[in-house]
Amino acid sequence: MDTIRYAHDTAGYFYHPIDEAVTDTAASYIKKFAPDLTWVYLEYTDEMGHRHGNSKIFDDAVIMMDKQIQRIWEAIQYRERNFNEDWVIYITTDHGRGE
Prior knowledge:
The chain is mostly helical. It has a domain at 15-83. The chain contains 3 helices and no strands. The protein has helices at 15-33, 43-52, 56-83.
């Protein structure tokens, strides 16, 4: 709902910088506080899938999300290496993809 920091556009591209901020916050929080449970919702990929279906725009969104998840995964690996913790990450979607 923040239209000041994330100027909304009709194409939905504003979701990506929001997802970037969510990713950075989640990775930082995991690294520092090691919550027992957390979840992260990245909306950009979902939005691009709805708007563009199976397309280059959607494929690019998946690649962007993969890089975001990698940053979260690196925070988890940091916890495992430095604090001898055992972590699990689950990645799921509310949609399938036929291709």
